[in-house]
Amino acid sequence: MKGRVEAQRIYLCLRSFYCFEGLVVIKRVFFSLILSFSVCAIAFAQETVITGKVTDAASGDPIPFVNVVFKGTSVGMTTDFDGKFKIKSLSLLKSDSIVASYIGYKPRSKKFKRGVTQVINFQLQEDVTNLQEVVIKSGENPAFPIMRKIIDNKSINDKRRLSGYEHDTYSKMEIDADNISEKLREKKVMKKIAQVLDSLDRIAGEDGKPILPLYISESVSKIYYRDNPSLKKELIQKNKVNGVMGEGYSDLLSQVIGPSMQDYNFYSNWLNFGQKAFVSPIADGWRAYYDYELLDSAELGGHFCYRLDFFPKSEQALAFSGTMWITKDEYAIKQIDATMGSTANINFIEKIKIQHEYEKVAGGAWLPSKSRVLIDVGELTSNSAGLLAKFYTSNRNFVVNKPKPTSFFDTAIEKAEDANLEEEEKVWDTLRHEPLTKTEQNVYQMIDTIKNIPIVRSYIDAIRLVVNGYYTSGKLDWGPYLAAIAWNNHEGFRLQAGFRTNIKFSRKWVLGGRLAYGFHDQQFKYQAFVTKILDRKRWSTFTLRARYDLNRLGLDEDLITDFPVFLFASRWGQYNKSFYYHEYRATFERELFKGFTQRVALRQFNFDPIYNFEYYTKPSDIATSPTSSTFQASEVFFESRYARDQVFIQNGNNRIGLESKRWPVFTLRYTHGFRSSFGDFNYDKIRLNINKRVKMGPLGNGYINLTGEQIFGRLPYPLLNMPLGNQSPVYSPVNFNLLRFGEFATDQYIALQYRQNFEGLFLNNMPMLQKLKWRLLATANVLVGGLKQSNQDVIVPPSPSLSERELKEYNKFRTFALDPEKPYIELGYGVENIFKFLRVDFIHRLSYLDLPNNPRSFGVLFTIQLKL
Asked: Phi/psi zone of residue 363: left (φ > 0), alpha (ψ -120 to 50 degrees), beta?
């Protein structure tokens, strides 16, 4: 029995062994089959490789940071700074589409072919309704610790920490007309270029909108910067420009919107765009303006980075939305894509997009290696087109902490003598940091075709007339058109024609003249001048001018040349105190060093009033002194002007000064009048003016104009200071707007004129008004001064025999002395940006209301202005 049991045990063990062995064999065969199948499958499978580029459908510009993935999976990548991507996967992947998505754009998906290498490009449409909402959960936002680290390291990563830097720059600019509607295409001028338009649909890509090229330029420059003092210079080495407005305007544009003007530093608290200030997403007060989300992390250019998306807390705020990648080690910006949309309180602009890619340089700071700026200007009317301005900048060969001497920066923008010489295309191929796209290569030819169409040239001439005030015909500019016609009570209707030569006539000589005729006084008036441009690099000119005309008492046209609308308005209406004058002037002007300009002028003029005016020619002995109503004067003045950071550009034979950024502008003038055969008086005048814009961040901008003057000598009041009044309905920032012309005379004074533009500070938060984008403003004008009794005694008083009516008429237009203990004060408030161009001011006069001339105590003034 025992043996039988043992035999069964052995049998079972053997059976189990053989069964196990069989299972193992079966498993081996099974896995061998699977392995063989897998090897065969892999052998027959091919990779799916997709490369492409993602661009904006409206502009054609590349979009960085776009997520491109296989649909239904997490396999994919984000586009680089140039919008390019490359993704790959086995063809066994179940997905048959790839999806491109990014904040502010509608996502797109496209089919792909499995197992092959292919190119798929995306054109994304902007999604204006897809507003990001940040969900606040319990606990601290995970983006906030990163933001605090960014702020802590700003001073280390900011390029302004360097004592100086320089780099090679290649820049490319293009301006196009976009949003060309079918209705606009029916216009006569558009039909003439329909053939060109039909070939332009491809500029923005297959899904994009047609764009009409107007301007393109390329330049190769050297950019220099130094700190303490903060100075910057652009040396343009090569420049290639083409535009429908012609060579002169194209050259001006290349200076105004060149790479040195497109320097937006996000490490600053505020980024200036014209006179607007946008708050940076990494400003010190970031939590007051933005919401943030920490969405991703990835390696970019060898740096592990966090992805932070940011959104303005207020739609109307001058703030950005977008994405930035922050390095983990330095907490520096590696890449940023920031967009300001149409909801912000800014005019005419639908969108501003700024993209930067940064590179760490010696010294620890980060400098932009690539920059892209897009400005989308909306249509003014339903029948007009918009404008699209695109700027691309590439920087290389950084040199840091080797600043040039301050004298090197005397000229902010300088062009090499051979900068505009035409070069072969193969030469430009060696200068460009990146090749032109096929579309950009065709733009030069497209612009030549468009601007040579006759009806287009007519429209261009009309635009030049509006912008420049002159009509250009060959070597002559005819105008200015604003002065062509006027009416006042002395001249009646006044017609005027004028001309000046332009740069086509000469780069060294400018000739010009004007001729006017009044149909009531039946007199011709004239002006003739000649200017010799002695030096363009260190701007130097010599001008001779002769003039005969009619003017208002107290209206100094030299002070209002920058306000053509007011100058135009001052030619109309009632001239209560006016005079004819001859004037001869010789002026020499030279920029001695950066920001410092010296002017010397010799002037002779006479005064022939057409109102009741008499003065004592020998006021020391009034009893025996003869009287006169006319006089002549000869004077020489020396004027020094210092604008430390003002940038000047050249437009043909004209030099234009842009607004100073940080520092005030000082102007000091000394005038000496001398008695001679052509002058009746000896006198001296010293005048100082200080002008500055004060940037106040969320409070807007303040504008200060402070002037003081002291006059030595015994003079009739037409030779003294007469505060500039305003009898027109047009507001002017340099006038005392409720003063009558010639109402006061002073021989010593201090005048303060202040304007505060609050932008959208208050009205942005009012639901019923915020969509109107109105902006509040405030003004204050204060004048403190006096008139010595000795100068008051020069004027012959009214005759005691005047009747009450005649005395009242005399006082109506009398010139009064300012009381040194009683300031003249005007305060005002108003609204600007009504219909985007109208400004309304409400002005209150608070002093000198009891004068016998019944002065205005309140006024409503208007002006037309085009402001962002």
From this structure: left
Q: CA 852, 855, 857: angle at the middle one, nearest 5?
A: 135
d(CA 747, CA 791): 8
> What is the per-residue pLDDT across 819-846, written as a single tens digit (0 to 9) for each?
999 999 999 999 988 888 899 999 999 9
- Match 């499958």 to its residue by tokens: 41
- Distance, in Å, from the CA atom of 642 to the CA atom of 663, rounded to the nearest integer, reads 10
Separation between Cα atoms, residue 226 and residue 164, nearest integer Å: 4
Supply φ then ψ for residue 559, to 5 degrees. Answer: -85, -20
Residue-wise pLDDT for 424-467, tens only, equals 778 888 888 888 877 777 777 777 777 766 666 666 666 666 66
CA distances to 660, 687, 746, 760, 788 from 714, in Å: 38, 17, 12, 50, 9
The beta-strand segments (E) located in 361-416 are 366-377, 386-400, 413-415
Helix (H) or strand (E) holding 309: strand 303-312
- Predicted local confidence at residue 760, as pLDDT: 76
Backbone angles phi, psi at 734, to 5 degrees: -100, 0
Q: Which helix or strand (DSSP H or E) is residue 454 part of?
A: helix 454-468
Q: What is the pLDDT of residues 691-730, one digit of tens each?
A: 998 888 778 889 999 999 999 999 999 999 999 888 888 8
Q: CA 497 to CA 477: how far, in whole Å? A: 11
Measured distance CA(63)–CA(60) in Å, rounded: 9
Token code pair at residue 797? 């008083």
Rounded distance between C-alpha atoms, residue 54 and residue 81, angstroms: 10
Beta bridge partners of 77: 68
pLDDT at 779 over 80: yes
Do residues 757 and 701 touch, judged by C-beta distance below 8 A? Answer: yes
Q: What separation in angstroms does the CA of 816 have from each of 657, 786, 797?
A: 37, 10, 12
